[in-house]
Design goal:
By secondary structure, this protein is mostly helical. It contains 2 helices and no strands.
């Protein structure tokens, strides 16, 4: 009998634990920001975009 034809049993509990650990990884420290930091960054970016242009010297 060829090895391909032999029935194989899978350890589904071990595989399920492996899949769950891959899907639910703990977030690393310092990677994600809290909402107050994000709000401050968005506010700063908006103020920079709405600020007037720097004056340019006139021609001539």
């Amino acid at each position: 009998m060829l090895p391909v034809e032999e029935p194989r049993t899978l350890a589904t509990e071990a595989m399920a634990d492996d899949v769950e650990s891959l899907l639910n990884q703990a977030e690393p420290d310092g990677t994600f920001r809290d909402s107050a930091e994000c709000a401050g960054a968005v506010l700063l970016a908006g103020l920079l975009l709405l600020s007037p242009q720097t004056p340019r010297p006139g021609k001539g």
